[in-house]
Write a structure and sequence with these properties.
single chain; 257 residues; alpha+beta; 10 helices; binds zinc ion
Length: 257
């Protein structure tokens, strides 16, 4: 890997200064950190395909929220319909769709940047919403969203404009066995079956959508853990970071230049 590739993969350049990306740091907690594009391990478990699925869903949901309707990929239609039905019922309002979807945030003081999926009023409270297409809500989502909320609020001077809550919006789809209730998901390279009875001669239902909207509690604690992880990430990548002249820390500490 070259320094340029490292910079592109793990951070953002903002006004000429390079900052690590929140998701690069939290990947250290997820166990997928050492998966690289083209890894045999990654291919075998279909993570690349799952990442592509996540990208398709993020694009589609972003467009729907901005009112830019179009024909979406047929594979994600069930998830999209599930999302639309949920959105029609749930008290969820986006103040400024142009700014509040895929919103870039930067904490200059702590030195990191990220992109928030959605900033919205949820039941009247301004909140960070992160969209996930995983099969469950993973623990590192707390760290990720705490980092976003901290950076968002660091950029706001007025308290009424600050975010107060964090939510995970998880949208998934699967077919279910009519006999043993095993679930099959096709967002990986090969269909993945979980649960149920391994000896069953599965009879699959049509594809069903599933949506979960979960508030994450314990912001202060999550944020502390994020900063701990960030230090670990910086240590793990110290060789690379020392070779990035416009890395925020290298600029702030001229002795390291
Ligand atoms: Zn079955």
């Amino acid at each position: 890997m070259t320094v340029d590739l490292f910079k592109e993969k793990f951070g953002y350049e903002i006004d000429g200064v390079w900052f690590p990306r929140v998701t690069s740091i939290t990947a250290l907690a997820s166990g997928f950190y050492f998966l690289k594009k083209g890894d045999i391990f990654g291919r075998r478990f279909g993570f690349q395909q799952a990442a592509l699925w996540g990208t398709m869903m993020h694009e589609a949901v972003g467009k729907i929220l901005k009112g830019e309707e179009e024909q979406f990929d047929a594979r994600i239609m069930v998830s999209i319909e599930t999302f639309r039905q949920w959105r029609a019922q749930y008290p969820f309002a986006i103040r400024n769709p142009a700014a509040d979807i895929e919103r870039r945030v930067l904490d200059l003081e702590r030195g990191y940047a990220g992109t928030i999926d959605i900033v919205a009023e949820v039941e009247g409270v301004l909140s960070i919403i992160d969209l996930k297409t995983s099969t469950s809500v993973a623990k590192e989502y707390g760290l990720q969203t705490a980092a976003y909320m901290n950076a968002y609020n660091a950029m706001e001077s007025e308290s009424w404009r600050m975010c107060k809550k964090r939510w995970i919006l998880r949208v998934d789809q699967y077919a279910e066995c009519l006999g043993c209730f095993a679930k099959m998901r096709e967002k990986y390279e090969t269909a993945r079956v979980t649960g149920g009875n391994g000896l069953c001669n599965h009879q699959w239902s049509g594809v069903k959508g599933e949506i979960e909207f979960q508030e994450l509690k314990g912001y202060e604690h999550d944020l502390e853990r994020f900063f701990d992880l960030k230090e670990r990430w910086e240590w793990t990548n110290r060789e690379w970071l020392s070779r990035i002249p416009n890395y925020e820390k290298n600029i702030c500490h001229p002795a390291l230049l």
